[in-house]
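Obj.: predict assembly geometry.
Materials: sequence records (below).
Method: joint structure prediction, all chains together.
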Amino acid sequence: MSMKIFQHFSVVGFCNTYLIGQDGGGPAILIDPGHVDVELIELIEEHHYTIDHVLITHRHDAHVQGLGTLLKIYTPEVHAAAASIYDYHVSEVTDNQTLHLCGFEIDAIHIPGHSLDSMVFKLDRALFTGDVIMSGRIGSTSDIMERELLRKAIRKRLLSLDENLLLFPGHGAPSTLKIEKMFNPELLEIIAATAELIM
Amino acid sequence: MFTFKTCAVQGCPGFVCNGHDTCFRHCDDQAGALAYSAGRLASHARIDDMTITNAEFQDLDCAKTQIVTCNLGFCTFRNIDFTGAKFVTASLDFCLFDRCRFLDIDSRYSVFAGSKFIDCDFTGSMLLHTNFTGCDMIQCDFSSCDLYYSNYTSAHLRDVRFQDCNMKKADFRYTDRRRVTFKYSNYEEANFV
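Observations (raw structure tokens):
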């Protein structure tokens, strides 16, 4: 059995939702249900999946607004760093925690900055980065302190990971860590600042 | 999804070819692996989860082939016809595309980042959520393309036409552009800064 990753683009909030399951159907994971529409339900049902777990990269509306609809159709366990989302019960995920869901091993990496509850999920060779790193940019922040917090966390926790990891961001096109380290101007700034620190 | 299994040769980070324990570079039967992959690419059918990296393809008719969750990174493509092809979550990063035709292709969530495109024609294509960051493009035509959420950050563009394109949410920050035209395109809805 091999892993399947499906993308769904939500026109509400322009968020990418990811459906992950084994080839052939069965229990599956949904990451960031920004908006649950007919297309997403069809994607799940056509591939014979049931949503057993939902992972939330962070508690911004564009990434969680579909939870209400989803919980009317399926009965998944919701995992997030935030203690609650819209009053729904959440299983709290902590930094460095390894989750065993639907036959997959998922590492949670806490990268605060864009929001205090921002999590990156590593599943095999795929990184689900939410709004921490997107293709060509890093997450937006509300002030300079949070910017530094984000840059520091990216430098410490993500830049040391394997370059061949695939990146599946919350918005925009997919990428790899190698591509971002080579061409993402904001990551290049972080790398340059790190080099200056070492020298 | 294509396999994440890496080459059996110690220290090699390359992904294994389908049906082999090694990457293409360390494959005992390179000719066989290349012929198999070329045959699938030219099948005009849907191919899922194929992996071959660092290979060279030439003079292939891949029209209407659906390339789904395949990894063809670091490959060279010369004179390949991808007219009407579909790319879904396909990885074609750090490739060389020389005189390739991508007319009316449908590309979604695919990665062409770090690739070099010489004399390639993408006219009339849907390039949604497609990653072209860091690409070198020389004499390419993207006219009448839908570039929604596609990313050209840090790309080098020379003699490239983006005429009458939908550029909503397309990203052109840090691009180096010479003789590039966006005539009749909604470039004000793209990101340049």
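Conclusions so far: The domain at 55-189 of chain B is CATH 2.160.20.80 (Pectate Lyase C-like).
To do: check interface contacts against the pulldown list.
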